[in-house]
Amino acid sequence: MKVLFLNPQGNFDKNDSHLTEHPDFGGQLIYVKEVSKELANLNVSVDIVTRQINDPNWPEFSKKFDYFDTNKNPTIVRIPFGGDKFLNKEQLWLFLKEYVDNILSFYKDQKIDFITTHYADGGYSGVLLKSKLGLNFSFTGHSLGAQKMDKLNVSSENFEDLDKEYHFSQRIMAERLSMQYASKIIVSTSMERYEQYSHPLYVDVSEVENDSKYKVIPPGVNTEIFNDDMTDLDQETVAQIEKKLNKQQKPFIILSSRLDLKKNHISVVKAYANSKDLQDKANLGIFLRGIPDPFTDIHKLSEKERSILTPILEEIVKANIKDKVYFFDLKSQLALASAYKFFSKLKSVFVLPSFYEPFGLAPIEAGACGLAVVATKNGGPSEIFSDGSGVLIDPEDIQDIVEGLINGLNNYDYFSKKVKKRVLENYTWKSTARGYLEVIEEGIKLPKKNIEKVPSLDAKEIILDYLKNKKI
Ligand SMILES: O=c1ccn([C@@H]2O[C@H](COP(=O)(O)OP(=O)(O)O[C@H]3O[C@H](CO)[C@@H](O)[C@H](O)[C@H]3O)[C@@H](O)[C@H]2O)c(=O)[nH]1
Ligand SMILES: O=P(O)(O)OC[C@H]1O[C@](O)(CO)[C@@H](O)[C@@H]1O
Questions:
Q1: At how many degrees (to 10) do helices 333-345 and 361-368 cross?
Q2: 304 Cβ inside 6 Å of ligand 2
Q3: Residue 116 phi/psi, 5° resolution?
Q4: How far, in Å, from the CA of 339 to the mean position of ligand 1?
Q5: Any ligand 2 atom below 6 A from CB of 148
Q6: What distance in angstroms lies between residue 72's CA and the mean position of ligand 2's atoms?
Q7: Other Cβ atoms within 10 Å of 468 Cβ, number
Q8: pLDDT in tens, 263-321
Q9: Any idea which ligand is nearest the CA of 140?
Q10: Which domains does the chain have, with CATH numbers?
């Protein structure tokens, strides 16, 4: 059985290169890698179909075929489209038709049984392929534009400007078409279905009440990497941390998300800066891959990343807490896991203060390594930690963040034990892959129907109408 994973953005290689160093390289890539690897273990032949990049700054992604390991299944198939240079995900919309045309010619002599699509750009590519071949496809959103728009306070007044940067017009239309034509919408939690897909921008096409349209398939944690085995620590990471800590034994508050506005790092820095109690109890650790010392490296960053990091550094200087805030540059998930384990020995807390988190792989990974978890109540974490195994906070209420962190630190033993149990019992990539296999086997049996005409990628009118009504 041949299954394609359509994932035009970011890119894949055996070293997870650039993971979290660039906003398009994060959880979705981990998710697609782990699910496709476990599907391959179930004897499915999997191709991750992504973009060929011939760019000296991104040398890892020029080979047409690549693999994670010697099994050579999944195969990473890199299709040329949009020229040679690396492009941010927001710049790919114009070239997705070329992506699909080149997929059609590459696979013309091969039998494709089913297609899974990831994020709006993958979903739209699935719609274009279905219009040509009639093939059924599943859609996994990973992150939907409507919630991002709402949390970035997009309004009728600033929409035009923000649309130039985030391309919400194309993204929302791509998501709507993906929801309409997918044979199955795969969600990580049931709240994702009922909360995210019932957004006014989707509710007319997402069939939220139609049980046969949705399948809840929780993501997993790679427990070969994220575990509480203290004998399996990356020594280079331990050395980096010990050198910086200089025998400090205080617990830490750990922030490890990629630099993206929606991750809302600044709220935790502000909470920490405003609370003497927190500063007495713990230090603040910020993991920024590829930025060893932000105060000196900030000029190397993109304008968008600089705009996120500058207020964080200013807050640290203004509150005079530079001696309590530590930055770490962790080059891999193995290094990340070792850092989590090191800090769990100091009874530390992992915090995810996103304005909105569709699911959140990072908090369950941190929990598997023994950290207590404090996470935003907006999105996936509210279901993941609905059993009280993690502390849920309002990411827009600084005082609530302070109290949540104090609760996590004061009750570290209770939360650390409870969250580890919760994660290991409910979140494994093997069970995620079994869920996908059920979707694939069901989808193969469905009738193949082509799509007459695929509408153009422009939801501007729908969005402006929504923004106008939202204001009233
Ligand atoms: O220094 C770091 C920090 C993070 N990570 C990894 O980056 C990933 C982050 O994933 P996640 O916490 O899920 O956040 P996003 O990158 O924002 O992922 C998007 O896609 C995910 C998969 O669908 C969803 O869980 C998220 O909610 C969605 O925002 C994790 O696997 C981490 O292990 C690193 O490798 N190194
Ligand atoms: O922040 P956004 O635009 O909703 O996109 C989520 C981003 O995070 C990722 O998980 C990074 O891998 C991708 O899904 C996407 O680039």
A1: 50
A2: no
A3: -105, 140
A4: 16
A5: yes
A6: 27
A7: 11
A8: 999 999 999 999 999 999 999 999 998 898 999 998 888 888 899 999 999 999 999 99
A9: 1
A10: 2-220+432-469 (3.40.50.2000), 232-427 (3.40.50.2000)
